[in-house]
Amino acid sequence: MFGQRRVDPTAGTHYRSERVSAVNGQYFFSTREGTLEGPYFTRVDAEREIGSYIRRMMQANQLAASRVY
């Protein structure tokens, strides 16, 4: 998919992939920022934490945008 997100400096190709992966029986999820979060004991735990991670990132962005310099 060719496009540009708000936070991207230029347009580019973004590939869709499975966000949750299993390594040695532990589950991780990857982020747009290129980090691998985990480990989690179950896939359900990892998927639940994706939502928590997104909420934390959105709150951090809102906080940064609301600061007056």
TrEMBL record:
Residue ranges of domain DUF6316 in the record: 5-59
Concerning Pfam families, the annotation shows: DUF6316
Question: Which superkingdom heads the taxonomic lineage of this protein's source?
Answer: Bacteria
What InterPro entries does its record include? DUF6316 (IPR045630)
Q: What is this protein called?
A: DUF6316 domain-containing protein
